[in-house]
Amino acid sequence: MKTLMAIGGAINRKNPEVLREFVRRTGGSAARIVILPQASALAKTGKDYANLFLSLGVRSAKVLEYRRRQEAGSKAQVQMLREASGIFITGGNQMRLSALFGGTALEKELQDAYQRGCLIGGTSAGAAILSKVMIAYGKDGPTPRERIVQLAPGLGFTDKFVFDMHFRQRDRLGRLIYSVATNPGILGIGVDEDTAAIIEDDVSVWACGSGGITIVDGSQISSSDVAEIEKGGPVAVSVLNLHVLTKDCCYNRETRAALIPEKVLLTE
Amino acid sequence: MKTLMAIGGAINRKNPEVLREFVRRTGGSAARIVILPQASALAKTGKDYANLFLSLGVRSAKVLEYRRRQEAGSKAQVQMLREASGIFITGGNQMRLSALFGGTALEKELQDAYQRGCLIGGTSAGAAILSKVMIAYGKDGPTPRERIVQLAPGLGFTDKFVFDMHFRQRDRLGRLIYSVATNPGILGIGVDEDTAAIIEDDVSVWACGSGGITIVDGSQISSSDVAEIEKGGPVAVSVLNLHVLTKDCCYNRETRAALIPEKVLLTE
Predict the structure, then answer these.
(1) B143-156 exposure pattern, b = at least 16 Cβ within 10 A, e = fewer
(2) CA gap B118, B250 in Å, rounded
(3) Domains, chain A, ranges and CATH?
(4) What's the confidence (pLDDT) of residue A264?
(5) Strand, coil or helix: what is B249?
(6) Taking the model in full, what pTM does it have?
(7) A239-252 in b/e burial notation, b at 16+ Cβ within 10 A?
């Protein structure tokens, strides 16, 4: 199975439920995790995550570090990625990731890893980068506006979804709606902090963690002026289908339906 | 025609497009406007709006002021409301309005005015109060959570809608979704600042002003755990229909469809 895990940032370090799920899905104590810290400007980010994963009981957690494009693709780096059961991409600035990995031998190695079943996950910028077209930066607010968002090419593990992180905390519905209205063939997923959207085989979307994920489905849009609005004006769009999902809820991209577990237990 | 006008707060005083629309719909230069300032704790709020309306060319703009419940219902007050072509309710705290008007003779006069075609409009708290069940207060954020919102009885001109104001600016999608999920028979309308939702005969909803209105239609909800979640946990709900409408867009509550004006003009 091919699996992506988009985490909304601000993982609860004291109770990292989303990272436990990452570990569970990458082999538990047998997991071999490689951390890509390039989005972060802090030297210690990679090491911090390695220690966090080791504290969760994995066998191996290594940092693949480099900061110059021409350093991408060494034998040691390739070897690390080929042995990994999970690749974790830290937060920071997603443009650093696309600028450093795009078009290198490592980009191809990452694709190969994904295809063979290595889980690819990331938090914040490391989640944004997972899609073919990613939200690079933008403004906040629930009303979509012209140019509210700037899109850029991501690492492209999926072309079916676009992710936006820190969703509840930074009020990003407007830019996600704008992204979806721009091309309704792409499903928008807004991920709250300390929460993950887990994508299996580009079809099933699971929610995990303490918050919610918001799925914005534009496939039923019948009318929109997104292509005509200028100068940052508000955009009209009708009708969007919205699903708000929490832990253990699942959405199917093919049927466009969500499954919310029954919480009612009738007592006698 | 019966008309309500829910304004999202923060009206642009230099270019009060939404108040011009209020004036246009209440008789233009022949308009007789009565201002209800009770939501505001500032003594000058009523007078400020009266001056603003007079500067827009209306014949009459009077403030109906009182601050003790037992003062509600004097002959002079009743006379003012009976002569009004438009009643404007200022912002502040919507609980002050329900506490001062609820169950008084003036509440009945307001209902009578609405039934005979007097436009009832308000901004911020003055808009929240228009519905039978109103959002009294709550927390912000796009993810619905248990108890994210406290509902209270409003003045009840409509039982088909619930309004939430400062929508884009204060990130209130979560509490509006929660309100709608609680009772999907009620249509949620989030109104941006300096923007109005105009409701005609409880069916047509027009957008007016510089921002957008967000319509949350819960009639297609097939699954939700809103009744079971406890302790402020996030609520799951699927599927909501969302419409984001801007100036001159119109939504019909009966057909559940929106009309977005065509902006494309093909040139030869």
Answers:
(1) bbbbebbebbebbb
(2) 21
(3) 3-251 (3.40.50.880)
(4) 57
(5) coil
(6) 0.82
(7) bbbbbbbbbebbbe
The rounded distance, in Å, linking the Cα atoms of B145 and A79 is 45
| B234: its two tokens | 């996030």
Closest CA relative to residue B126, chosen from B51, B206, B191: B191
In tens, the pLDDT along B220-257 reads 998 888 878 877 788 889 999 999 999 999 999 999 99
Q: Mark yes or no for CB contact B143/A257 under 8 Å.
A: no
ipTM higher than the 0.90 cut: no
User: If we measure between CA atoms, which residue out of B87, B156, B102, B103 comes closest to residue B128?
Assistant: B156
Q: Residue A258 is nearest to which of B174, B238, B246, comparing CB atoms?
A: B238
Contact at CB, B228 and A264, closer than 8 angstroms: yes
Q: What pLDDT digit, counting tens, does each position of B153-198 carry? A: 888 899 999 999 887 666 677 788 888 888 888 999 999 999 999 9
Cis peptide before A239 (omega within 30 of 0): yes
The β-bridge partners of A32 are A60
DSSP for B136-154, written as a single string: EEE---SS-BTTSEEEEE-
Using one digit for the tens of pLDDT, what is the confidence trace for A201-243? 999 999 999 999 999 999 999 888 887 887 778 888 999 999 9
Q: Per the structure block, which two tokens stand in for A33?
A: 């995790």
Alpha-carbon distance A133 to A82, whole Å? Answer: 25
DSSP B70: G
Query: Residues 191 to 230 of B: which have CB under 8 A from any A CB?
Result: 192, 207, 210-212, 214, 217, 222-225, 227-229
Strand-strand pairing, A161-164 and A187-191: parallel
Specify burial of residue B181 (Cβ count, 10 A radius: 0-12, 13-18, 19+).
buried
Residues 6+ apart with CB under 8 A from B225: A246, A260, A261, A263, B235, B236, B237
Indicate if the pLDDT at residue B264 is higher than 90.
Answer: no
Is 60 exceeded by the pLDDT of residue A49? Answer: yes
